[in-house]
Amino acid sequence: MKYRLLISAAAALALSACGGGTDTADADAVATDTAMAGDTTTATPAGADASAMTAQAFADKQAASDMFEIEAGKLAQSMGKSQAVKDFGTMMVTEHTKSTADLKAAAGQARGATVTPKLDAMQQSNLDALKNAGDQFDATYKQQQVQAHEMALATLQGYAQNGDTEVLKQFASKTAPVVEKHLAEARGLN
Predict the structure, then answer these.
(1) What pLDDT does residue 50 have?
(2) What does the domain layout of the chain look like in residue ranges?
(3) Is pLDDT at 11 greater than 70 in this prediction?
(4) pTM for the complete prediction?
(5) Which has fewest Cβ within 10 Å: 30, 77, 142, 155?
(6) Largest CA distance in the chain
């Protein structure tokens, strides 16, 4: 899987360099997918080029991130081995449901941005891995949560600083500290 992601990333970069139609959002998605798979040595942070994101690209990325957190949180509530993982999962469902509602409200004020949560292929793959993690659920969940929150934080901070739509920049600024708190708590899960 790691090699397939590297090949996908190389192909996206080659197409981008040749004007083959891969835009910044696609390249960012490849970087996100690569990092979510655990290969952070070749991935760029998901928010590294958030300044080039359109309002819609940001809304799509944030909605997918929230959806992943909600679905993974539900799995943690039912499949987690430790009470800390179950409690963290409950918090993820609650707080990322609120984040999605806040994103929808902000996007409603932004012209041309809609919120339609849809997991990307790597997020779906990570959920599938969680479902099949068995005794390794807690460790797999922690690893995925750290990576997902690192990427979400980078995207939020990047868009807050350089985004193209003020109301979504405000949403990103307000949401980044919450995600930063989640990241610290994810890192502390045992």
Answers:
(1) 53
(2) 52-187
(3) no
(4) 0.74
(5) 77
(6) 51
CA 98 to chain centre: 16
Mean pLDDT of 51-59: 87
Write 41-48 long-range contacts (CB < 8 A, 24+): 42/6, 42/9, 43/9, 45/150, 45/151, 45/154, 46/151, 46/152, 46/154, 46/155, 47/151, 47/153, 47/154, 47/155, 47/156, 47/157, 47/158, 47/159, 48/154, 48/158
Distances (CA, A) of 129 to 25, 75, 119, 122: 25, 11, 14, 10
Amino acid at 93: V
SS3 111: coil
Query: For 104, what's the count of Cα atoms within 13 Å in the CB-facing half-sphere?
Result: 10
> How many residues are listed for the chain in this entry?
190
112 has pLDDT over 90: no
Is the sign of the CA dihedral 147, 149, 154, 155 positive or negative? positive
Residue with tokens 């959002």: 25
Taking the C-alpha atoms of residue 70 and residue 190, their distance in angstroms, rounded to an integer, is 20
Pair 119, 15: CB distance under 8 Å: no
Q: Per the CATH hierarchy, to which homologous superfamily does domain 52-187 belong?
A: Ferritin, core subunit, four-helix bundle (1.20.1260.10)
CA distance 123 to 32: 9
Average pLDDT, the chain: 80
Q: Which amino acid is at 143?
A: Q
